[in-house]
Amino acid sequence: RGGGSEFEPDLEKGLEMRKWVLSGILASEETYLSHLEALLLPMKPLKAAATTSQPVLTSQQIETIFFKVPELYEIHKEFYDGLFPRVQQWSHQQRVGDLFQKLASQLGVYRAFVDNYEVAMETAEKCCQANAQFAEISEGLCLGTSFLCFHCFFFFFTALLYKPVDRVTRSTLVLHDLLKHTPVSHPDHPLLQDALRISQNFLSSINEEITPRRQSMTVKKGEHRQLLKDSFMVELVEGARKLRHVFLFTDLFLCAKLKKQIGGKSQQYDCKWYIPLTDLSFQMVDESEAVPNIPLVPDEELDAMKIKISQIKNDIQREKRANKGSKVIERLKKKLSEQESLLLLMSPNMAFRVHNRNGKSYTFLISSDYERAEWRENIREQQKKCDFSLTSVELQMLTNSCVKLQTVHNIPLTINKEDDESPGLYGFLNVIVHSATGFKQSSNLYCTLEVDSFGYFVNKAKTRVYRDTTEPNWNEEFEIELEGSQTLRILCYEKCYNKMKLTKEDGESTDRIMGKGQIQLDPQALQDKDWQRTVISMNGVEVKLSVKFTSREFSLKRMPSRKQTGVFGVKIAIVTKRERSKVPYIVRQCVEEIERRGMEEVGIYRVSGVATDIQALKAAFDVNNKDVSVMMSEMDVNAIAGTLKLYFRELPEPLFTDELYPNFAEGIGRYCKGNEMELRNELWNDILHQLKMSRFLKGRLRIE
């Protein structure tokens, strides 16, 4: 249009979005109609068979199972046929509100469908459990050019049974989007408002009835198989890591694989294996039994993935600010999902093994002892009261129903987060673990701290063991780095020194978890930078904590060097000149001590050391205490690693310099294999040469 258009640019864009939303509704309606057609196709042959001497189903059973499905098909066929030509002949003045208003006025048919659900399910299950004559007769049911066995039809029916209810939910959400892009002055606006009001009222009226049904599946009359917990996990299969979705029901533990979606087909699961809870145990590894080897991914490779993820996120934000095309952003989002998926697959290294008393064992890898303990507790609690019965028919039906039953719908990737969802906290969280009360008998007690980072939880700190007490007073401070973190978890353990009492579970010596709890890291509450005291209650035990948050903006801020003595906060050139060495004494001492006794530790630089130990070492190095090597030999290796990290963090200028930081980030982010490793090495040599020349020219540090 020319300058005389009656539409403003923003209004024009909104109306274009209106057409885009309607095109999406059309495509969705087409898929939904195909689902309804799939349900209706068997009706004719089933009805014909009902009049013979050997009916597959009685007329009453057919009426019950397919209740209101033909009416729903006719309603949506009429809606689709009315909407299609209007979208094809589109103009901004085009009206569609009357079609949505009429569709909303017919929601009473959905009410009848929902009210009949329980009876339809019971009828379907009775038919599935019928004798072989039904299967023999139903093998002749022709659906187009393919044959569908009677049992398979009911698997399909069960999977599609919630389609109509889900349709109302999705339609209501899309109707909301359509209304948002429809100007108030447009004739459709009041009609769409009315349709949205009717739909929302209908949804709220049936939600209370539908929710419990979505979370359960009938096993026998009067009993239900309830979903208790589900989660994505990494399974170790013949040495390879595989992403799985696991489901804990009231009577069984099911491991499923999410099938790839092809051509817009609905989500489906493939059952890999299951264990009845009556037969499930947590594998007790005998001394002579070989424990499956867990392939560990080196920390440097995981760090490279994290840096690459951070780089891509920054690129996405830059493209958004530059208002670049959506294709560039979509490509970056795809790369981000690939990297995040790889990190989630490769990072877990803690074994969680389950054993079927009548068969084999299975190994999962998870990153959090908190989650491993939670799964064990849930399973053990349910084992006290479960009974088991499952036919092959029911197994297939159950697997199909997992799409509807799941509570964890998405892998924790950035692309699966809502735009308004909190990105979490970035910076440093100081935590003081003060004390604990509520223990019934004297024990050797310690705590660990976990935070979420890049979509999964990792262990970040561990207190010392407080021996023979019911009221430990640790009073230990830790500094924990946060990378998009939202939750702080604490686990309290009893340290077992008596080897006769050690539980050989999952092939390793494990201390007993006495309690666990967590707190949400509220950005608003933590912004005032003051210490905040809190109490975490867990299984009758109370642990007292204090927390303080420093944002990345302040924690990484370099301060000009005013010190001429000591080593912390002093330029490297000054320290090396004073010590007459090429590498500062603190760096040599810390690295040597870590390499001497810390190479077998997991997460040397990731797990936080005790802050008081780090400060003691800092003071000793600053005054050139001759006993510093003795102090280090008596301290936890994580405290030594923490001292080295603190030294580098307090340098007036980054070791790798501000101007060369992007080059180092690119070099670390290049995770290469095969021949590409040579290119990566060349890149590193070039960057290090640039650093050498930069340091030499500026006179800050001689590098030979």
Automatic annotation (TrEMBL):
- Residue spans making up a coiled coil are none
Q: Could you tell me which residue ranges the DH domain spans? A: 17-209
Q: Which GO terms describe its cellular component?
A: axon; dendritic spine; membrane
Q: Which UniProt keywords apply?
A: GTPase activation, Guanine-nucleotide releasing factor
Which residue numbers delimit the PH domain?
A: 226-384
One Pfam family it belongs to: RhoGEF
Compartments where located: Cell projection, Axon; Cell projection, Dendritic spine
| Taxonomic placement | Eukaryota, Metazoa, Chordata, Craniata, Vertebrata
Q: Name one GO molecular function term.
A: GTPase activator activity
Q: Specify the species.
A: Cairina moschata
Q: Which Gene3D superfamilies match?
A: C2 domain, Dbl homology (DH) domain, Pleckstrin-homology domain (PH domain)/Phosphotyrosine-binding domain (PTB), Rho GTPase activation protein
GO-annotated biological processes: signal transduction
State the superkingdom: Eukaryota
* C2 domain ranges (all copies): 409-536
What the entry lists under PROSITE patterns is as follows: C2, DH_2, PH_DOMAIN, RHOGAP
**Name recorded for this polypeptide:** BCR activator of RhoGEF and GTPase
Q: Which residues form the Rho-GAP domain?
A: 570-704
Which InterPro entries has this protein been placed in? Abr/Bcr, C2_dom, C2_domain_sf, DBL_dom_sf, DH_dom, PH-like_dom_sf, PH_domain, Rho_GTPase_activation_prot
SMART domains recorded: C2, PH, RhoGAP, RhoGEF
